Structures are given as C-alpha cells and as structure tokens.
Amino acid sequence: MKTAISDFIKSKDFLVCVDSDGCAIDTMDIKHQACFGPAVIDVWPKIEEIKIEFLDLWNHINLYSQTRGINRFKGLVMSFEALQAKGYEVEDFSSVKSWVEGAKSLSNPALKEEIHKNEDPQLIKALKWSNRVNELIDSLGDVDRPFENVKEGLASAHEYADIAIVSSANTNAVAHEWSKHGLSQFVEVLCGQEAGSKSYCISALKESGKYPTEKVLMIGDAPGDLQAAKDNGVFFYPIIPGKESESWIRFKEEALESFLSEKYKGEYQEMLINEYEDSLK
Fold this sequence. Notes:
Blueprint: E1 14-18, H1 28-43, H2 51-63, H3 72-85, H4 94-102, H5 108-117, H6 121-139, H7 150-158, E2 161-166, H8 171-180, E3 189-191, H9 198-209, E4 216-220, H10 223-232, E5 235-238, H11 244-260, H12 267-279
Parallel strand pairs: 1-2, 1-4, 2-3, 4-5
C-alpha cells in the first residue's frame, strides 16, 4: 500500500476512494469522545470549568451534525467560535483561525512549517493540541475495528477498481488500523491528513490515473466526503452513521453494480444522498 500519490500506479478502469474513520473503521466516536475533546481541555485548561458543556458542543460539531468529520483544526476553531456565541470567554485564537482559513493544507507538518516562519504562540498551542490528540489515540489500544461487511465490500470492489483511502486522519494511524485488520490488501494508495484535503486528493488521484469522471466513486460518512466528491464531479456513496453495516451490505449487493454498469448517475445517487442528509438532521 503506497502512501504517496506520486507512487500510485493505475491498474484498473475504475477508482473507488474510501474514507477511514467512521466509514470503514469504527473509531470516530471513541477518538472524539476520548481524545480530541479532552485534549483541548489538556491544552486550554480554563475550559475545564465548562467541561461538560464544551465536550457536548465538540461532539455535536464533529459527530452529530452537518460538520461531521470536519478537519481537526477546523473543528477546533468552530468549537471556540461556538463557545463565544454562547457567551463563554475564550482565549484568543485569531491566529489559528487565520491559518485555518488561509492554509493550503491543514495538517501537523503544514502547521510546523508555518510555526517555523512565524513562531506565533497560538499556533504553537494548536500544534501541541494536535500532537496530544495523536498521543491519546495511540494510547487507546485495540479499540479500533472495521464495521461489519467492510472487508466483503472492499474485496468486491477491488476486483474491478483501484481503491484509495482518502482520509483526514493521521496517515500512520490509518495505515496501522487497515493493516492490522487485513484491509490494506485491497488498497493501492493511502492519502492521509498529510497528503492534503480530500478534494485535492481525489483530484490528484483522478488526474494521476486519467480516470473518466463517471468511473470515480467516493465512499464516505461525512458531509465533507460528499463535498469532496461534488468538488470533483465524481459519484458519492454514503455510509450512514448508525447504519454502517447495512450501508456496506447495500454497497456490495446493489450500489457497486450500479456504479460499474454506469447506472449510478441521476435518480439513484440522488436517492442515496437524500437518505444520508436526512440522517444528519
């Protein structure tokens, strides 16, 4: 399994991109509830005073709303903005917000580069938080597992399509999880957080393999996955939160054939997207 788009070599006519956390691997809830939110309190200890309110807000933004699966740094800024909107005093995060709004890549390496140019204490704190998140995730142990029917779905797709992981999670963590559970055998390339945005990765993969738009599918559980597919004009298959196993069965038994036979466009995809968006209301 390659971890750089530049090393990817097309071998099939179709391309299926797959998100990881919350889509293929059942780790999204535990990572946010035990790692992302608590790490904010570790680095910004004054938030401890409103811990329950903050963690509820963090989980709503990152798990249970239209911003589910958002990039970690965007989620951080949104959570601070939401606290302010509720009248809570929040430590100045304007530099972090400016970086998030202007950076081409939102990752630890990109943030390190920015800190090297401008040793802004807010940015240093944001990197400390992100590193703390990774430490807590590493300490979780064997809590990760694929959703039921993921392996069967990937195996079926791999007969006809190149498969790429397109994730906003840490590359090393994703590679470890997919390898441990025997899923990496179906994957040609892994594009993690460090590779760039999901929209960029889909575009780069599509261009690298010269895939026609109608032969590219993105599988995801978050609105950001849907948007990344829309940005590139490719198809989207939703993994519905709370119905992950059923979604993968449907992919294997119904959606994959529709995609391969080029009957996915139009009414069928619209039906799937409507069901998905209704699930997050």
